[in-house]
Amino acid sequence: MRPEPRNRMLMDRLAAEFVLGTLRGRARRRFERWRTSSAMIAELCGEWEQRLAPLAQRLRPIAPPPETLPKIRRRLGLLPPPALRWTAAAAVVALLIAMLAYWPATQAPLPDRIALINAPSGQVQWRVEIYTQRARMVVRSPGLAAKPSNRDYELWALPAGGAAPVSLGVMPVRGEAALALNERQRQALAHAQKVAVSVEPLGGSPTGQPTGPVVFVVPLRVVG
User: Fold this and answer.
1) Minimal CA–CA distance to 169: which of 134, 131, 196, 133?
2) Helix 25-37 and helix 39-58, axial crossing angle in degrees, nearest 10
3) Mean pLDDT of 36-41
4) Which residues, at least 6 apart from 85, have a Cβ–Cβ distance to it below 8 Å?
5) Which residue has better confidence, 174 or 167?
6) 200 and 192 Cβ atoms separated by less than 8 Å
7) How far out from the chain centre does Cα 198 lie?
8) In 8-32, which positions are buried (b, 16+ CB within 10 angstroms) versus exposed (e)?
9) Packed helices 25-37 and 8-20: angle between N→C axes, nearest 10 degrees
10) SS3 for 147?
11) 148: helix, coil or strand?
12) What residues contact residue 76 under an 8 Å CB cut-off, 6+ apart?
């Protein structure tokens, strides 16, 4: 019987396994589908990513004693004839080097600032992730926001000191949207403590400033 996505305790455990990478096969693919459709699961995954990433960054590789591998292979009956041992050892070293070179490149970068925009029910309606070093922003939506008729939702950075809002682009109502930040947007976000969402004509505000009602104003939180 499938687990019920509304079971928060179970979903929290699965989110931890998903982020760690121990959730595999069909279970992982099913959980990925739930993540895109459930605000609760998206939020739990984000919390585990923030919780575990600093631990991984502090880990230092520790080389095992040189006799460890031969002992394991001897116990398993896998030691080759003496003439082949040097070739096998060289292959193992080459594989380990390749794995160490590949591992850092496969780690998903973490955002340094996020904003959670909640629906009236308290569920996350949009998750805004800012990657300052990569000049990139990702907005994720589980599909709770109903698209207004002939209108779009637009996201704005609100620089401190009363400076004019700066558009960050049109918001998705379902799924994920990624945006490369230009210099103006980067500077606005660097001096912003909040973001806002307004209702605008299709494609975004024609004036470069909010023209419709502002429906959300939320803080930008620093990750870590």
Assistant:
1) 196
2) 120
3) 80
4) 79
5) 167
6) no
7) 24
8) eeebeebbbebbeeebeeeeeeebe
9) 120
10) coil
11) coil
12) none
Contact 211, 150 (CB under 8 A): no
Residue 217, strand partner residues: 196
Sheet with 221-222: strands ordered across: 175-180, 136-141, 124-131, 113-118, 221-222
Q: Which class is 113-222 in CATH?
A: mainly beta
d(CA 23, CA 48): 14
Q: To the nearest whole percent, how much of the chain has pLDDT over 70?
A: 79
102 φ, ψ (degrees, to nearest 5): -80, -35
Through-space distance between the first and last CA atoms of the chain, rounded to whole angstroms: 37
* Domain boundaries along the sequence of the chain: 8-58, 68-106, 113-222
- Report residue 82 as tokens: 């003496």
Residue 220 has φ and ψ, to the nearest 5°, of -90, 125
pLDDT at residue 106, as a whole number: 46
Identity of the amino acid at 75:
R
Give me the mean pLDDT over the 171-180 stretch.
86
Report the C-alpha gap between 39 and 162 in whole angstroms: 32
Condensed to tens digits (0 to 9), the pLDDT of residues 119-167 reads 777 788 889 999 988 889 999 888 777 778 889 999 999 998 888 999 9
Supply the pTM of this predicted model. Answer: 0.53
Residue 117 backbone phi and psi in degrees, to 5 = -105, 110
